[in-house]
Records
---
Amino acid sequence: MTSAALHRDIHMIPKKAIGGKGSYIFLEDGQKVLDSTGGAAVSCLGHGNEEVTRAMMAQMNQLSYCHTAFFRTDPYEELAGFLVDSTGGRMSKLFVISSGSEAMEAAMKLARQYFLELPVPQPQRCRFIARRRSYHGTTLGALSMGGHVMRREPFEPILLPNISHVSPCYPYRERRDGQSDVNYVSRLAEELDAEFQRVGPENVCAFVAEPIVGAAMGCVPAVPGYLAAMKAVCERYGALFILDEVMCGMGRSGTLHSWEQEDVVPDIQTMGKGLGGGYAPVSGVLIGNKVVDVLDKGTGSFRHGQTYQGHPVSCAAALAVQRIIKEQNLLENVRSMGALLESQLRSQLAGHPNVGDIRGKGLFWGIEFVKDRATKEPFDPKLGIASRIQDLALEPRYGISLYAGSGTVDGVRGDHILIAPPYNTNKDEVILIATVAAKVTQEVFRDLEK
């Protein structure tokens, strides 16, 4: 079989999906797959939600597109109001685009413009500090911001030179034996402070972090107190605090915004995936009052624009998804089903000799695999452990998606899988997901021993 489409692997044509309903995707060959990862933590309402599709059709029948330089639309206005209200007014503007990478690019440019429009401009601020083994997107600015070694490597010569990286908050591997959360956070804050000093604190635009690291490390939540400590360092030197919630936000971790759980409000927040649940390409940048006030008193405009920003159909989809989450109280289901998923994963997998760590929040869970639990030694990357688990799980006898990730440990070595079912999943599905994940894991490692 050949294809004119450039698939992710030019030598492998994926199976064809022809439909979907609830937590399941239907394939051309008759197979039914339990989408326990929501794609890449995207399909927060599952597939085929008729209320969302009706909202999109209604908007298409009214107006499919208009340019935001000329016109505004109700869906954009209503979505912006909804999300600003969801922050208690602590964020005051929403910028809507199409992908997480675009959201990060916009956040970077907005941070730069903020310092140019201060009453006393600070044009020397052009540096960013992010974290190793992070992921913020694939466009050049977003890829430069991220610390994902394998994704960066081919493009290093053309990546931005004004971004440096500090340690992630990764307690499983990087917290010292016996070290408390408080002391671990203090150490990371000192490292960030030292990096500000190294590059010149007066030169830094912002520090950027994911509250829960998604694809790059496999659902690693920051320990309590970490976000507040990092924000404090930023405030000490007048830099902005940017949180990337493209994967972990919009309800995925049990609250609409991950930062709500510690009430650490960012200056700029990116969002995506769960914003529109996959029903339309949509992402967003929520902007804090401090930044908006400076723009308001300065030029009054964000010097950035894209053809499809504020797209009315995408906004209608996102608004419908968010209203359903709120009206059906799905965040409570995320928390309760998340607790069940955690307990099931731990009871069925925590004792496995090759399972090093099980971590996550809400309906966002990762499993890290190791060659040796005592030393936490990872497998040789050539073995492709996570990919083997993903591929086996998709076979008809299991029929489930498990999202594979690699480079967990140092950007090259390390394997994990990610599990992120829809917010309206139920007890039976959660138990099935954990049970099949355990069976697949056991089979892969049995075969490896042979």
---
Amino acid sequence: MRARIRNIKEDDAERYLNLCLRLDRETEFMLLAPGERRTTPEEQRQKLASLLASEVSMIFVAEAEGKLVGYLGAFGSDLKRNGHSVYLVVGILQAYSGQGIGTALFGELESWARKRGLHRLELTVMAHNEAAIALYKKAGFEIEGVKRDSIRLDDRYVDELYMSKLLPA
């Protein structure tokens, strides 16, 4: 099955929120635990409107069978000193992993980033998330360091890896 990759639209607010809520329940690898996300559909629509008005941030969504099944968010800054960089957040429903969606999302991101003259793509990933680390390495990301005991999962602490990809200037 092929997913269509595109920029998010304001009209996607409720479907995007539902995707995020499902990811919160489905995997421990997202930052928010089940029940922590309290955004309303209207608040989500406002956040998307603000994001879409920015030249330095975008959310790319993967759509299959009429529903959103994954996303890659790129969040940048208008500041001079770090305006060359975007922080990434990725989520793909488990039923759709391993189908090339992540690779396609990163391809779309990189094209968007190059058009904007961005230089640094960065993210953090839980150190035990082997599938995500493999995807990021496949996309050209390298491990820069370890953020020790960065996340608390139930009764244990988990390290995160800092990863980045530098685009040619």
---
Amino acid sequence: MNREAREAARELCAVGRRAVELGLSPGASGNVSARAGGLTLMSPTGVSLRDLDPEGLSVLDGAGEHVAGPPPSKEFPLHQAMYRRVPDAGAVVHLHSPHACAASCLPAWSEASALPPVTPYLVMRVGQAPLVPYAAPGSDRLADNLSRLPGRFRAALLANHGSIVAASGPAAALDGAVELEEASRIVVSLRGSEFSVLSPEDVRELTGRYGTDWDL
């Protein structure tokens, strides 16, 4: 790996450990990837994010061919689909965090977003996050379901599964996943109660200021 890829590998492993510390990646669940120096670095299959090692990551070339390290997570097609949707993304984080998983089992708020705009922070830090129809983890169908969704987004909930977030780098992607988990926690806790959401005018102000997407 070149210097850029080595630095990305170190950051990716630090993000994996942080996700476990925050309780967002139980057991050996979840997977992370980063693009650098023409390569994609990814957590290997069956390895806890707590145990990631910069020298033990899976390495894939620009065409998605496995070129070094152990086999990548079975969710590599899902990560590829997210990179195609967000061409400027430098990293993707997919987690099975508890509240995002719970929210992914509920009906979507709208076609554009699984979650309503309950806080300004979801709108300004993540933007809309649609609900991807269920398909088996690691399947090409799951990646296809994400690819076929309309609109622009950098995050999504995977039905009955968890969350996925793309961002400029691993740390930013984890920040988005944390915000998505917190918004999911709020929505799940409000289930069955009347609650308010941000007005369309407030949403437009935030998306305009922070460059996120939210279809109203």
---
Amino acid sequence: MLLIAVVALAVALWPREPRELRTDTATATRGAPAAASDGQRAAAALAACPSPSPQQSAAAGPLAGITVGCLRDGRPLDLGAALAGRPALVNLWAYWCEPCARELPALREYAARPGAITVVTAHSDPAEAKALARLGDLDVHLPGVQDGDGRVRTAVGAPAVLPVSVLVRADGSIAKVVVRPFDSADDIAATVAGELGVGA
């Protein structure tokens, strides 16, 4: 009986990978997940990803040249070029992250306000189909990109936690990396106004 108690205690205290940036166990076992299907993309009904403006000069800043997949259609997207010339909020999240699930509707509400800056979600897990399903469940249809290998996180120097919001100036420089979940659209608006000087 004592041996069972010792083994149970050892299992309980054994260090585990933090959930904030874990790898999906099934994904790790089977290898990289397949890309989402056209049907899954259509069901999620996401807004189109931002596109580069012909009037803008070349992208600058840490996101220049960072290629991710647009969740709406699966096409590659140079995120820095797509955001060039406009302030933006890039929200790093994952389908399994509960604080992210509570924050995403606030981002949706903020993005619908007149004067809001561009909001793009960046799914930070390889399981693209699960991201689309989660966004559909939450009724969040913001533009989104798939960043399963963490290119955006690495480029902006964000810590290995979720959610993280990156406030990007129109010139491509990073105004702030916000390492906490927003609790409301008003919280987002106040942070954006304070860091980027843009009110909504």
